[in-house]
Design brief:
Largest sheet: 8 strands, antiparallel, barrel
Helix content: 10-25%
Number of strands: 9
Oligomer: single chain
Radius of gyration: 18 Å
Structural class: mainly beta
Distance between the termini: 30 Å
Order of helices and strands: HEEEEEEEEE
Length: 131
C-alpha cells in the first residue's frame, strides 16, 4: 500500500513538473487612486517574476515565498469570436491570469471594483522548466 501511494505521489509530482513555468512580466501598470494633476491615470509598477505550476483545473503562482491558488478552465471562444486558442483562464477572487499554452505568453490582472487603486494589469512571458 505504501509503495502504491509513493508511486502515485511521484507520478502526480512529475505531471505537475511538466506543467511548470518560470515567468516574468514585461510591463505592469496600476490605476492611480485619483487622476494626477498632469492628467495621468496609471503608474508603472515593478514587474514581478514568479513560477506557475498547473494541471487542467488548478494553477499555483509562487512568488517571494508566497503561493496563490487559482481555479482554471480552457478558454472557449464564442462562435463568431476569433479568440485565443490553446489558452487557459484562471481566477482567484479578484485575481485573474490567462496563459497562451502555445507561446507561453500571459496576461495578469487584479480587478477590484471597490477601489480604483487596486486595479492592475501586467503582460509577460514564461519559459518551461519541466521538460
Amino acid at each position: 500500500m505504501g509503495i502504491a501511494l509513493a508511486l502515485l505521489s511521484s507520478t502526480h509530482a512529475h505531471a505537475q513538473l511538466k506543467n511548470a513555468l518560470l515567468c516574468s512580466e514585461d510591463i505592469a501598470i496600476k490605476l492611480k487612486e485619483h487622476t494626477a494633476a498632469d492628467g495621468s491615470l496609471v503608474n508603472a509598477i515593478a514587474e514581478r517574476r514568479f513560477s506557475l505550476v498547473w494541471n487542467d483545473d488548478y494553477l499555483n503562482l509562487i512568488s517571494a515565498g508566497k503561493t496563490e491558488f487559482y481555479e482554471c478552465q480552457k478558454i472557449k471562444p464564442r462562435l463568431n469570436e476569433n479568440g485565443p486558442k490553446n489558452s487557459i483562464k484562471c481566477q482567484n477572487g479578484i485575481y485573474f491570469i490567462t496563459i497562451d499554452l502555445s507561446k507561453f505568453n500571459f496576461a495578469r490582472a487584479t480587478l477590484d471594483p471597490q477601489t480604483r487603486a487596486n486595479v492592475e494589469i501586467a503582460y509577460g512571458g514564461c519559459k518551461s522548466i519541466g521538460n
